[in-house]
Amino acid sequence: MKIAHFVQGYKPAIGGTEYLMQRISEQLVNHYGDDVTVYTTNAYNCEVFNHRGVKTMEPGREVIDGVKVVRFKVFNQLAPALNLAQKVSYKWRWPRNDLIRTVYSGPILPGLLREMGKIEADVVCASSFPLMHMHYAATAARRLGVPLVLHGGLHPQDGWGFDRKIIYRSIEKADAYIANTNYERDFLLGKDIDGRKIHVVGVGTDPDKYAGATGIGIRDQYGLSDHPVVTFVGQQGGHKGIETLLKAMPLVWRQAPEARLMIAGSRTKYAEVLDAIIGGFEPEQRAKIIVINDFKEDEKPEIIAAGDIFASPSGFESFGITYLEAWAAGKPVIGCRSGAVPSVISDGLNGILVDYKDHRELAGALLELIFDVDLRRRMAEEGRKHVLKNYTWEIVAKKFRSIYYKAVLD
Hints:
Elements: E1 2-7, H1 16-32, E2 35-41, E3 60-64, E4 67-72, H2 79-91, H3 97-105, H4 110-115, E5 123-127, H5 133-144, E6 148-151, H6 159-162, H7 165-173, E7 176-179, H8 182-189, E8 198-200, H9 207-211, H10 216-221, E9 229-233, H11 242-255, E10 260-265, H12 271-279, H13 283-286, E11 289-293, H14 300-305, E12 309-311, H15 321-328, E13 333-336, H16 341-344, E14 351-354, H17 359-371, H18 373-390, H19 393-409
Parallel strand pairs: 1-2, 1-5, 2-4, 5-6, 6-7, 7-8, 9-10, 9-12, 10-11, 12-13, 13-14
Antiparallel strand pairs: 3-4
Helix pairs in contact: 1-19, 2-3, 11-17, 15-18
C-alpha cells in the first residue's frame, strides 16, 4: 500500500504520538514493504506551534529507516493575536470558538497546503487531536478520494483541548477511527459516533530492548548505590503530575530517607516552574533529586531500568506509553484514576492508581512499593505479561495495517 501519515512531529521530535507514528511507519515499510510518507512539521515539540523563538529543525525531505519524511516549516507569527482571540472567544463561548482554538493550537503549515496536490496515497492516516494537521489530512484524503483513518489520542479531561465540535464532526466523516483504549471508545460512543468504525488498538513498545537494560551505568553516574529510586520519564509538562510527585517526596522521606527521585524528560516552558520548586527544597533534599533533561531516545531503557518504581501521576493521557516501557523493564507503575489510565493499569494487579494531584495518596503508594519488594516484583511481572500479549510494535502495527487495508477494500 501507498500510505500517507500526518503527525505533528517525527524523529528526532519527542512525544508519545510522535514515537507511535514513527514505529508504525517503520514496521509498515520494513515488515510489509509498504510505501510510507510522513507529512509533519519542523518542530521538536508542540510549543513552537504557538510560541515564537522556540528551537526547530530544518524543513525539507529525507528518508529515515526507509520512511519518507517531509517536514514543513511552522508559521507562528500570528501566535500572540491568536492567543488573545482564543482566550476571549473561549471565555465568552462565542460561536465557533472551537475553530479559533484549533487555529491557535496549530500547526499552521502553508507549505503543506501547497503540497496537497502532489500527495499520492491509497489511504491517509493522521494522529492526533486537537491539532490542526488532522484537518489537513482530512482535506488531503478528500482531494485524493481515498479513505481517511484517524487516530485521535483523545483525553477529554482537557476541556480546552477536546471540547470542540470540529473534532467530532471530523471523526464522524472519517472512514475508520483508531482508539487507544476502551475508555476512548466509550467516550466516542457517547458522542453518537458509529461504533462500527471504532477500533481499539493501543500503543506499543520493544520488550526485549527494555528487558535487556540494567540501569547500572545510570545508577553509578548519579551515585544511586542501593537507594530505592522513584522514576518519572516524560515531557516536563504541567499536566504530567511532576509537581505532585515533588510534593509527595518529603512525606516519603520521613519514613524512607534513603529514597531518591529521578525526573527525566524533555524540557518545556513549564520546566521553569519545576526548577523553582526544586530550588525551594532544603539542600539535603535537593541532593536526593536527579533531573535528566532532553535525553536521547536510545537512553530511555537504561534510565527506566535504573529506577525501582515508575511513577507518572498525570492528569490526562490518551494511553501512557511509558507505563508499557516501565513494565517491559520490569518495574511496577503508579498512575492516576483519571481518563484512559485506568483502562491501561489494573489497580492492585500490575500497578497502583491514585487520585490526580493527591500528593498524600501518592506518597502512600510510593511507600507501599518501597517497603514491599515482593509486591513490586509481582506487579512488574503482571505488567510485562500484559505488554507481551497486547502491546509489542509488531502486534500494534499489524492491527493498524489491517484497519487501513479494510478501509481501502471498503
